[in-house]
Predict the structure of DUF4181 domain-containing protein.
Amino acid sequence: MKIDAIIQLLLFIMIPTFLMRRSLMKMSEEDRKRFVGELTKKSVLSTYSLIALSILLLMIGRIVDIVFLKIISGLLFSIGVIVHSVLIWFHVSSKYKALLSTTLGIIGLIIFLWSLWKIY
């Protein structure tokens, strides 16, 4: 077991959770309800949960050194970015904004897969 990978996993989980809770407490009640409503849409929930699960599996893969987890992590991240791009393309009013978001998502996917290939 690698201690630095375990600490990195804990930081990956705890810091965003703390920051999200702190920001939610500063919001007014109606802003909080609107934010939670936007966050729980099926498209947002499915896309970001796939990406978060892939990063979590990648971190766990560093702890226990299982190559299979790294492969699944890359696959889930790829599916998450592709689903995100398709959902944005269908639901955005301006196709220019959709193209920009899709391009950024694909660039992020390429960088993630390249770093996964280089590191492991």
